[in-house]
Amino acid sequence: MRILMVNTVYKRGGAARIARTLHRGLNHLAGWESLFAYGRGPKLEEPGTLRFALQPEVYLHAVLTRLTGIQGYGTWLSTRRLIRLIREWKPNVVHFHNIHGYYLDLSIAKAVDKLGIPVVWTLHDAWPLTGRCAYFLDCERWRKGCGKCPYPRESPKTYFDSSAWMWPRKRRLLGELWKPVIVTPSRWLANLVAEACDGQCRVKVISNGIDTAVFHPVDRLQARKELGLPEDRKIVLFAANKPYVRRKGGVYFFEALKYVQADNWMAITVGEEVDLAQWVPQGVEVQQLGYVKGAEAMAKVYSAADLYCITSLADNFPTTVLESMACGTPVVGFAVGGIPEQVTEECGRLVALGDAKALGQAITDLLIDDAKRRKMAENCRERAEREYNLQLFIKRHLALYRELVRGQDKTRDIEPEGAIFFRKKVKQKEESDDKKGISLWSRWVYRSPYGEAFEKGRVLGEGSGP
């Protein structure tokens, strides 16, 4: 069975990591083949990957969004290239992940729907629900039409508020323009999507999975020795690529540290380094590890810590929480988004959003109670292995793919011959028109390297991409 994965990028960010994990897992199974098509980032030599978007269009799309607030317009040719890829590669299922990020037009939904191929769309954030942003934070305007956006500088940044204009256009993606099965990692987001689409789309929860053979408990003393950390102190870990970004809530983490009442402890951070003099309360020791490369190295960091603290002000189903739990490190943080579904009372402590004092108290309670913390560490590992292992994550997707393909086959079995003939003639006409249109607009786009590869019967992913 052929699955086409589509995402903004291949390597950077949580959505790419989840999509890449699924893509590689499928390609290790007999009878399954996955092609990963992405819009931005460097061209890769890795087999089974293809960058299809035209980079000048990506820049144009980004500029339009930044200046006007309009999203999903400006990459017409790139969108047509993806449609051509789908027609030629003939996947059994197209699995979209993030469709925002300046690389696809909103017209992709209607175009894919015409092809009659089953579609899965995994939402890694709340972008389709709002008129602009991926995370609405404490704003409730997304429920009734947006407009007067209170956070125009949150991603994607804009200098002009077009959220009220964009809202109905993005909402049409939830079952009107196409009929994808929408997958969400959390029940929290699934409930919001069900509310927004008003029964027009099917929503299914498939929790994110991680490789528990990579993220596993490492000897704590050895890990600390390799990282240059003291062996006799209790350590609280905070990890954020850019801790100063509002949504990551870094300011709340550092504020919470002044309320910690424990002996012989310190904090460590992973991610971009900040000016500690401006962020850290007086008398609190914080060691910045900077960026940590590689899953194995990050597993050592989790194992070296006694607690992992996440202070996101908005989140879906963060993989850092799962990774920490798989390494046997209890979690403390804010009860927001899908995090309460991950962190039960047996695996950590969550407090009300924005309550730094309560967070500091939760950290204190677990730092001073060694027995409770050890029991939580065992529960964390057990829960990660049982609920969030990679095999279960892939198995749930396989079941969904098979169901969709079987459903499509049954539909074909009962389709009248006249309807089949008519559909084929319509498809031939559309393909002919598309070729002529592409030739008129830009003949070299149609005669792209991967287009020639298809015509010659070559296999994609062998360095033949554009």
Question: How would you briefly describe this protein structure?
Answer:
It contains 17 helices and 13 strands.
Structural description of this entry:
It is a single chain. The chain is built from 17 helices and 13 strands. The radius of gyration is 24 Å and the shape is globular. It folds into 2 domains: 2-209 and 391-456, Rossmann fold (3-Layer(aba) Sandwich); 220-388, Rossmann fold (3-Layer(aba) Sandwich). The protein has helices at 14-27, 55-68, 76-89, 108-115, 163-171, 187-197, 220-227, 250-257, 276-279, 295-304, 319-326, 339-342, 356-368, 370-387, 390-413, 417-446, 449-456; strands at residues 2-7, 33-38, 49-51, 93-96, 119-122, 181-184, 202-205, 234-239, 265-270, 286-288, 307-310, 331-334, 348-351.
Rg estimate, integer Å: 24 Å
Biggest sheet features: 7 strands, parallel
CATH topology of the largest domain: Rossmann fold
- Give the class-level CATH name of the largest domain: Alpha Beta
Mean pLDDT: 89
Secondary-structure element order, N to C: EHEEHHEHEHEHEHEHEHEHEHEHEHHHHH
For the largest sheet, list the strands in their spatial order. Answer: 3-2-1-4-5-6-7
Task: Give the distance, in angstroms, between the N- and C-terminal Cα atoms.
Answer: 25 Å
* Strand residue content: 5-15%
Count the DSSP helices. Answer: 17
Helix content: 40-55%
Which structural class is indicated by helix and strand composition?
alpha/beta
Task: Supply the CATH architecture of the largest domain.
Answer: 3-Layer(aba) Sandwich
User: How many β-strand stretches?
Assistant: 13
**Name of the CATH superfamily of the largest domain:** Glycogen Phosphorylase B
- The low-confidence parts are 436-466
Shape: globular
Q: How many discrete structural domains? A: 2
